[in-house]
Design brief:
The protein is an alpha/beta fold. It is built from 15 helices and 12 strands.
């Protein structure tokens, strides 16, 4: 049994799914260390800490750095997965301790958000420091190709990169199936935070001309955030209130059921390290259009389960929406393909892959594992 300690910034519903799948495998002796409790902004989104079904502990909030160093040293003979290098200072301290002890560890990380401004000194320090810690890692678990590209720039060898992401349990959506759709109607849905980074202004701009071309199309915006008042005002000012609806935020447990009644999910973000709502849509057989600056774009197969558009480009988003709307006879096939991808990115499918990756990192397996979401069915390959 693989002795594994996972260092995670705070609890989340989707990581809880993964931890329970790892424990249920019987192949891992799992311990999870959280840096802090769930922050207020996540609680406002309907998250809960979801701590059942696996062993965990929190760092001492009064002495996080020293507690992290102590725990890392005590567990130095175990294999570790550490969430990020710089975002949580206590984890940086843990990584330094593990590196100094010659321990085996993997870094599980998104790419840094490119739009955040950092001083030249901070960039230099983080870059140099990151190179050292990343180079000593047994492997990298990058959250999408965006993170893989970033770590390659830090000098990480391709052989040490094991593609990864964020995932949810099959049980969240398996009892839900996209029902019969009205031929004359198409509901496009966004679900998430209503903030500038999510690109909802682009989505409104892209879809506005399509309302005239496709009479049955409606847009539903689900969520809350600082940008909501401006979005409501724009919809009223543009005379789109009959075609654009607003719904409040839903808890993570309620999202799959709501998405299952839609025809298409759009995630128009200017940047998203991943975008778990894409997994949630696929879990209930709903196709997705997503920007190329979302990590979950890795799951899209153009013309099969969705499309990818250039981030920030409303015209390109409009063209991809039109492509989808023009192919209504193919929507049943798209829904089948979406559901197939949902299966491949369930934690039940991904946890064996992760365990195989960890064993390969430490020399316990000869063949490098292949991510389950990269596989194509025979029917898809023929397309």
């Amino acid at each position: 049994m693989l002795p594994l300690t996972v260092w995670m910034n705070y609890p989340s519903f989707y990581q809880g799914d993964l931890f329970r799948s790892l424990r249920a495998s019987g192949r891992v002796d799992l311990q999870v260390i959280f840096a802090k409790r769930l922050p207020a902004d996540r609680l406002q989104l309907g998250w809960d800490e979801d701590l059942h079904g696996y062993a965990y502990r929190f760092l001492d909030p009064r002495h996080r750095l020293s507690d992290a160093r102590r725990l890392a040293w005590a567990a130095r003979r175990r294999l570790h997965i550490v969430n990020g290098i710089w975002a949580e200072p206590a984890f940086t301290a843990a990584l330094i301790t593990l590196a100094a002890a010659g321990s085996r560890y993997a870094i599980y990380s998104e790419a840094p958000e490119p739009h955040l401004r950092r001083s030249a000194i901070k960039r230099a320090l983080r870059g140099g420091f990151g190179r050292v810690l990343a180079a000593r890692a047994s492997g990298l678990l990058p959250v999408s190709h965006l993170a893989a590209d970033f770590y390659r720039q830090l000098g990480v060898r391709q052989a040490a990169i094991y593609p990864f992401g964020y995932f949810r349990s099959r049980a969240r959506g398996q009892a839900l199936a996209a029902g019969a759709k009205k031929e004359s109607a198409c509901e496009i849905v966004f679900a998430g935070q209503m903030i500038p980074r999510k690109g909802l202004d682009l989505l409104l701009s892209a879809v506005r001309p399509l309302f005239d071309e496709f009479q049955g199309v409606t847009l539903t915006l689900i969520g809350e955030g600082d940008g909501l008042p401006a979005l409501r005002a724009e919809v009223e000012r543009s005379g789109l209130a009959r075609r654009v609806r607003f719904e409040p935020s839903l808890s993570p447990a309620a999202i799959p059921a709501r998405l299952s009644t839609a025809d298409l999910l759009v995630l128009p973000s200017r940047w998203d390290g991943w975008g778990v709502v894409v997994n949630e849509a696929f879990s209930v057989g709903v196709p997705v259009i997503v920007s190329d600056q979302c990590g979950a774009a890795d799951l899209i197969r153009a013309g099969q389960n969705g499309y990818v558009f250039r981030a920030g480009d409303a015209d390109d988003l409009r063209n991809r929406l039109r492509d989808f709307l023009d192919q209504q006879t193919d929507w049943p096939r798209w829904r089948i393909n979406a559901a197939m991808m949902g299966e491949r990115v369930s934690t039940e499918a991904v946890s064996p892959y992760l365990i195989d990756c960890l064993n390969h990192m430490i020399g316990g397996a000869d063949e490098k594992p292949v991510p389950p979401w990269t596989a194509l069915s025979a029917a898809q390959a023929a397309d």
